[in-house]
Amino acid sequence: MGFESNVFVNCPFYDESIPLLRPILFVILDLGLTPRIALEALDSGKPRVEKIITLIEKSKYGIHDLSRLKAKKRGEYYRLNMPFELGLDVGCRLFGGEQWATKRCLILEAERFRYQAAISDVSGSDIAVHRNDPPAAATAVRNWLNTEARLRAPGPTRIWNRFTDFMAANYVRLTERGYSDADVARLPVPELIEDMRRWIAEPDDGDEARP
Amino acid sequence: MRKDQHVVPNPKGGWSVRASGAAKASRVFRTQDDAVKHARDLAKREHSELFVHGRDGAIRERNSYGNDPCPPKDER
Q1: What does the domain layout of chain B look like in residue ranges?
Q2: Are B60 and B50 in contact (CB under 8 A)?
Q3: Global pTM?
Q4: Searching chain A, which residue's CA lies closest to the CA of residue B52?
Q5: Which of A71, A88, A103, B50 is 20 to 30 A from A62 via CA?
C-alpha cells in the first residue's frame, strides 16, 4: 500500500453514517486506490491519535466528511474528531516536509457553505456537497479523485451501478451464509472493505458495468 | 443468459431499472413504485430475480421469479 494510492477516510463510522460511507469506500477501491480508516488498526495498543497520524502520513489523499459537525438536538455534543483529523492532515501537508507537500484533501459537507459558519479557516479547500445523499457522495468522491489522481475513471453513473451490483451480490452471499438482514446492514466496516475488494477482483464474466 | 433486475436510485434523479452487470439502465422512472412494477414484469418474464435497492444502494427487497432452489414438494 503506497503513499500515492492511499486515501485516508475521515468519516463517521456509526450506524446512521454507514449509508454514505459504503459508496465512498467502494468508489475508492473501484478506482484502484486504497482506503485507510482508523478502524483498520483497532487491535493495536497504540493510542488512537497515533494510529490516525500514521494513516495520515501514509496517505496522499484525504477525504474528510464534516457533515456531522452540528449537534442534532439540545444537549447533544457536536463531534470534533472529524475537524480535528482534518487539521492533522492539513498540518502534515504544511509542516511535514517535501513528500507531504503533495497531499490533497477533499472536504465533504451536507449543505453548501454550512462549514464556513463552524470552521471558516478551511475556505479555499476543495469542498463538495453531498446533501446526505449516497449517490451524490459517491459522485463527489469519484470526480475529485479522478481529477487529483489524474485517473481516467469510468463515469459516476457506471461506478454507482457497479456499487449496487456489489451490494446485491454481497447480500446474496451473506444471507446464504446465515446472515440476517440486520447482520448485513451492520456488517463491520473492515469486513465490508474485504468483501468489496474480493468482488472487484473477481473475473468480470462479460459484465458491461466493469471498467 | 438470465439477467437479474435491479431497481436502483439514479444519481441524476428518479429510479432506474437495470439488469445485473449492464452498463446502462433499460428505463428510468420518476417514482420507485413505477420502477418496481416494470422491473417485476421483466423479472417474471425472464424467470430471474428482482432486487429493490434503497437510496443508499442497500437491498430493501429481493424476490425470485424462477430457479427456486427449494421448490415446494409435489404432494400428489
Answers
A1: 5-61
A2: no
A3: 0.90
A4: A168
A5: A71
